[in-house]
Amino acid sequence: NLRQDQLKNSKDHEARLVITVSDSEQLPWKAGYAEAINGGKSVFVNEDHAAYHHEVIEVPFKEKESDVETRRDLELHYFGVFDGHAGQGASIFAAKNCHRHVIQQLRVVSHLLVKDGEEVYAEDDDGPLGPSAPPVSKVSLVRGALETAFLCMDEQIKRERATYLIKGGCTAIVSVFILGKVFVVNAGDSRSVLYRRSTEDKSFPDIPSREISNASNYEVIPMSFDFTPETDRSRLQYIALLQPNLLRGLFGRIQWQRRLRKRDVGKKVLCKDAHMDGWALRTVTEEDAGCAPMLTGEGKRARLLATIGTSRGFGDHDLVGPGEVHIKPFLTPAPEVRVYDFSRTHCIDDVLVMATDGLWERLTNEEAAEVIDRCGRELKPDNTSRFVTIAQKLVLAARGNLTAKGWRTSSDLQASYDDISVFVIPLQMHNAFQAKPRTQQSAEASTSDATAELPDSVDSALGQATREAPPPESTEMKETLAPHGAGPDSASPRHDDVSPAPSLSLSSFVVVENDAAKTVDSDV
């Protein structure tokens, strides 16, 4: 919904305006979103794209002791961030379609998810000795649905990339709020971190305790793992071990501690193979010395086959490296899924942050906690723009200011030149929204009874952790797409399976001038 002059300003690599949604009602629980274009990495194009979707799945249900068929509703809230590379086609396509695959896969198991209890029997055919298979947890059913959805999304891009002229690929991180839990699904190097005020409750069953830290009176709980060629090394090396022909004799599977030279042949040099976490000595052969390493660099400079800096995500089906080595066989859309249970009450300061690597390459998880804490103390609890402002501050902290030395942070360090997209999702509101299946008396029941009981006023929602929420206004499917969702890289025919989602309207641009934020209101 941007005017042409506003759209032009949003693509200014020198101003790098911080753009937010105009109406906090467009996202649930007054959640915040902010983004800024890169510093010239991809000219006039923001390769990040984000999406939000709300869905209620209606499930026919029959009680065991009754022949009356009722209906139970399964409600979910979906947030997604997609970081494109080599073009924005894949990230736009994923932003417009990934939620469809998530909903489709959840529908497949919805009849099991609406059953009572945390564990269910998948088969109704009980033998004379009882169920023929053990029960499974609902968490594992949702996890499997989300994992399948990511693979289906990648397959759709593969099928339709020629139709939509989709080049390149994208990483993906998605958060699905369902059944009183949040499932964070990650394939790539974007990141999601949960920040909650320190309490005596230290139970995080799905997250290794060694990954949890503390900063600014926050418990910093990583809800995703960064997948890069460096962190995904073992998986990549196993692929090369099982299919050495993929490397075409040009690259070597072994990771050596240093660059090999011809004079190293016959010597023992430290190395790592697919099965190893530590280093071991290995005798260098002529073949080893004659091949380039398939994995090079460290951190953000890590590269697979001297070409790509990520190992998981969507797209890249036509990507080739030096020597016409096809790279897609080494890449995978298979995600990691982490789960957080909303069994405890949260305060106004507890948030889930989802962001592309443009933010995290300049802010550590703990530094982001400091920004959130400082901003939260400056804002009143009933401020309707509280979480939008926190999202803006996070973007500004990573983007910095344009100086004679380029983009620099407040500490005069190099700032992020990448696209930056950030969701800040409050967790306190989820105590009012406990999305568990609800029973309707008949299939013809009013759809207004099936929607989420979401807080309708800022005072009541932000002021209390739990409350009895009023009925919503409607049950129409709420679907929004974050800015820059005009379409793939170039004009292309529309496919019946892909209907474009409307863009979030924008109301203000925040420009940093001499470390001071200046807000320019628009007419949108």
Please report the distance between the alpha carbons of the first and last residues. Answer: 7 Å
Question: Quick check: average pLDDT?
Answer: 81
CA radius of gyration is 24 Å
Number of DSSP helical runs = 11
Main beta-sheet annotation: 9 strands, antiparallel
Coarse morphology:
globular
Percent in helix: 10-25%
Instruction: Report the count of strand segments.
Output: 28
Which ranges are low-confidence, i.e. pLDDT below 50, for 5 or more consecutive residues? 441-524
- What portion of the residues fall into strands of 2 or more residues? 25-35%
Oligomeric state of the chains in view: single chain
SSE-based structural type: alpha+beta
Strand order of the largest sheet: 10-11-9-21-24-2-1-27-28
Summarize the topology.
Elements: H1 4-10, E1 18-21, E2 32-36, E3 48-62, E4 69-85, H2 89-108, H3 110-113, E5 119-120, E6 136-137, H4 138-160, E7 169-178, E8 181-187, E9 191-197, E10 213-215, E11 218-222, H5 233-242, E12 251-252, E13 255-256, E14 268-272, E15 280-283, H6 286-290, E16 292-293, E17 295-296, E18 303-304, E19 314-315, E20 336-341, E21 351-355, H7 357-360, H8 365-378, H9 386-399, E22 401-403, E23 406-408, E24 420-426, H10 429-432, E25 438-440, H11 458-463, E26 478-481, E27 506-513, E28 516-521
Parallel strand pairs: 12-16
Antiparallel strand pairs: 1-2, 1-27, 2-24, 3-4, 3-26, 4-7, 4-25, 5-6, 7-8, 7-19, 8-20, 9-11, 9-21, 10-11, 13-14, 14-15, 17-18, 21-24, 22-23, 27-28
